[in-house]
Amino acid sequence: MTSRASAPPPFSTIGRRRWAGWLRVGPEVNGGDAFFRFSTASVTVVATGLLVVLGIGLFVSSRGTFGRQGLGFLVGPTWAPVHGVFGALPFAYGTLVTSGLALFLAVPVALGVAIFLAELSPRWMRGPVGLLVELSAAVPSIVYGLWGVAVLVPWLREVAEPALQRGLGWVPVFRGVPVGNGLLAAALILSLMVLPTIAAVSRDVLRAVPTGLKEGALALGATRWEMLRMVALPHARTGLLGAVLLGLGRALGEAMAVTMVIGNNPRIAASLFEPSSTMAAILANQFGEAHGPHLEALAALAFLLFILTVALNVAARLLVGRGWGQPKAEARFLFPRAP
Amino acid sequence: MVRGAGATFPAPLYEAWVAAYRAVAPQLRLNYQAVGSGAGLRQVFDGTTDFAASDVALTDEQVARAGRPLLHVPLTLGVVAVAFHVPTVGPLDLAPDVLADAYLGVVTRWDDPRIAATNPGVTLPSLPIVPVYRSDGSGSTAIFSEYLARRHEAFAARIGRGTQVRFGLGVGAKGNDGVTTQIQTTPGALGYVELLYARHGHLTTARLRNAAGLWVAPSNGGATAAAAATDRALGERHPEDLRVSLVDGPGDDAYPLSAYSFVLVPEEFSAGGEAKGRALAGFLWWALHEGQKVAPSLDYAALPIATVTRAEARLRLLRAGDHRLLDPPPSP
Amino acid sequence: MTGRATSVDRRWAARRRRDRLAQWACVLAAVVAVVPLLLILGWIAAKGMAGVDLSLLTELPKGPTEGGGLGHALQGTLVLIGIACAFGVPVGILVGVYLAEFGDNWLGRTARFSADVMAGIPSIVVGVVVYTAVVIPMHGPSALAGGVALAVLMVPLVARTTGELLTEVPRGLREAALALGVPKWRSILRVVLRTAAPGILTGVMLAVARVAGETAPLLFTAGDSAYWAEDVREPVASLPVRIWSYATSPYEERVRQAWAAALVLVLFVLIFDVGGRVLWMRRPKA
């Protein structure tokens, strides 16, 4: 036996590489182990393939629309099922505006909360406040929607939007009759919903910054804020961006709360006070009653939403990059692979 | 389980009936999906559902498309109210030509002289009229557009009549609840909704001029009167299949925007199963009799006796193979 | 030392000011974040409590002005969760086992990646796919279709927690089992999984908390019903779908019930979420 550090212990030489078709199932030392590994591997293959199956299923359901309209569907400005006209642009617009505004409002606050929880708060406060933030992420969206309809929309209609119009009415996005339901209501509710997600992940990212780095800066005389600004935040930059992308993903896919407050009128609205729609909201609103070309067009919207969220999640994962569930290095000696 | 699908308007009534019918026939499970008349009709045409509910009778073209005979069984009456939101004003009398011109953009403000003409003594503000309509296919749209199309040529030509029409002007909202909310929150709004929603949404409604030239407020009684008067007026000529429009019908008390709300059942029910057919027939019979007593307390209009008699005749046609489903089952 | 302020002192004072300002800004952010969340939870509690009573939880619905309850929706939610767990939990656990025990290869890497991405797919998209795949062939909504949609949402979550958890089981346990001659598969099933069971249960509870509140996928897969659930091939009522239809109803009684049901749903979800976390804290560590 050589004494290379990577040499596996003696009993590993008993097994050989075995294959079941293209799937490597060995080296196991007995049939039971081989079967076990094969079954768990098969289930994993199926579960992994689910993602691809989802995408293909959506594409197949929507091929009629893409066949008829091609990529023109993406920039079609009108959505009128009654007349057989379908275009995705109003929803792209609504999704962009509501999610963008939601992030614009939520990210600074979430970052502040994360810093507060990770660095600044007294120890006794971190548990409860952190728990409150995480539990808010667990509240179902229908409940946010119910609150939105009963509380937020009337408040916007009677208090906030008129006030905005009085103060900033010259700005084009604050024109129009305040009805409460609209892009602003949807953006506000989305910001409340993504805030806990972004804050929780950002807090974890900040906590992962090596203490040595942070203490080093403090030891050199930096104030807390300077330490954050010059050491912790730059170090956590990619992770924080990943947190924002996760929040964006959640905002894009949110259907129920948005559909209850946005007014469900598929058009490109100049003012934030006006009703509009998003991709997820129109699916919740119309999918149950659609058929034929209408159904295909909605499936096409679902496909777009799918592609968008997959891309965002991939980007977020590359940035936040948590490897998990890997067998630890020592375990290799116990469950050996052929060299 | 008996499955039905169709219009949203009668859904609360059907749910109340189902709850009450549990005491009468506990073994019946009836599931009604309020997915809209269009989806309901499609499903009953291709057999994926046992019955459909529609606020409008089938057109000849739809009857042909159905492929097999469908029985129209009216169970209640829909009442479409014209509602509006003008802050300082109570109920108004709105003539059909004024309404049509409002949707055409000819009458643009609430203080238009033609509105003032039918409402002497009322101070009307100079508020712009915001017409509201149903953005989804709807029986209410069919009823409303039918009334205006009959009384106004330009409306019939430019906008048309049916469950989906070409409203160019105004704001579209989805569902009765969408239109209600839109009217509630937009000063100057003018729209049409089922009376139920107008009442529960505390909307101000308008009186309309019926075929007899009288001003009538929207009410369930007005709808029942319209159905009774049409029945009397047509007499022998009343279509047996009950595919009759009550819009702008005869009768002094008749409310012009009334319509039967139908259940559509395949006349030949073997495909669904004879037992299911009997259960459904029993439920529909009960709805035509005991159910009518419950309807007013839920704010739904009851059918006049004449209509119930005609509907009974239709229901008796329901059969599976040779057996009439309302008769007692043949002994084995 | 004289009391004269030097430029260093002035700069220091400025830095201190900026530091204070930043810290207070973060505190303000925390307040801005926490207050609306507390308001929402408080609102639900206040309005919901007015409507929650035994009849809501045990009766079937009556007409829209007559009271009645949502017992069938509560039962329906439990049925849907049951079906989702029946499909999702075994798949998730098996995937987690593979990843933790055998997964240091291309399949494992792909699977982990896929699980992370799938955890972020909007639930309404899953609902659309399940509609095409299950509802259309079955000619209508059913509890089965709804359960499948929820299962698809559960699998990535359960796989992730199981995978993470199993790698934390101390290798000494595995070694001991092997040293005693136990075949690897048996050691995993009997020793490793059993040790990790509380943590896996956590994963399942957190996944249940996530899917119990889902409305969008159920709208067109599970439908709605006015009866107690009896057959998985029939449509089934669920709390989220009933809340959705009651919230937009014109009847005040219905809206009141919507709030009460929302409270019940939130409590259900929070119990599973908090319960899962408590179990996670108590899991066996290396």
Tag the structure with descriptive keywords:
heterotrimer, A: about 350 residues, mainly alpha, two-stranded antiparallel sheet, about 0% strand, disordered N terminus, disordered C terminus, B: about 325 residues, alpha/beta, 9-stranded mixed β-sheet
Structural account:
The complex is a heterotrimer of chains A (339), B (332) and C (286). With 339 residues, chain A is mainly alpha-helical. Chain A has twelve helices and two strands, in the order ββαααααααααααα. Chain A has a two-stranded antiparallel ribbon. In chain A, helix 3 (89-120) packs parallel to helix 6 (183-207) and helix 10 (279-286) runs antiparallel to helix 11. Chain A is flat and about 65 Å long. Chain B is of the alpha/beta class and 332 residues long. Chain B has twelve helices and 13 strands. In chain B, strand 12 and strand 13 (323-324) form a beta hairpin. In chain B, helix 11 runs antiparallel to helix 12 (305-316). Chain B is elongated. By secondary structure, chain C is mainly α. Chain C is 76% helix and 0% strand. Chain C is built from eleven helices and no strands. Chain C has helices at 7-51, 54-58, 71-102, 106-118, 123-135, 143-168, 171-179, 184-212, 216-221, 239-247, 252-281. The longest helix of chain C has 45 residues, at 7-51. Chain C is flat and about 85 Å long. Chains in contact: A-B, A-C, B-C. At the A-C interface, strand 2, helix 1, helix 3, helix 4 and helix 5 of A face helix 1, helix 3, helix 4, helix 5 and helix 6 of C.
Give the strand line-up of the largest sheet of chain A: 1-2
Give the termini distance of chain C in whole angstroms: 57 Å
Using a beta-carbon cutoff below 8 angstroms, give the protein chain pair with the largest interface and the number of residues from each chain.
A-C, 102 and 104 residues
Distance between the termini of chain A: 14 Å
Q: Name the beta content range of chain A.
A: under 5%
Q: What's the oligomerization state?
A: heterotrimer
Helical amount among residues of chain A, as a percent range?
55-70%
Number of H/I helices of chain A: 12
Give the ordered list of helices and strands of chain A: EEHHHHHHHHHHHH
Strand content of chain C: under 5%
Average pLDDT level of chain A: 82
Structural category of chain A: mainly alpha
Q: Quote the average pLDDT of chain C.
A: 88
Q: What is the C-alpha radius of gyration of chain A, as a whole number of Å?
A: 26 Å
Low-confidence stretches of chain A: 1-14, 328-339
Helix percent of chain C reads: over 70%
Radius of gyration of chain C: 25 Å
In this structure, how is the largest beta sheet of chain A organized?
A: 2 strands, antiparallel
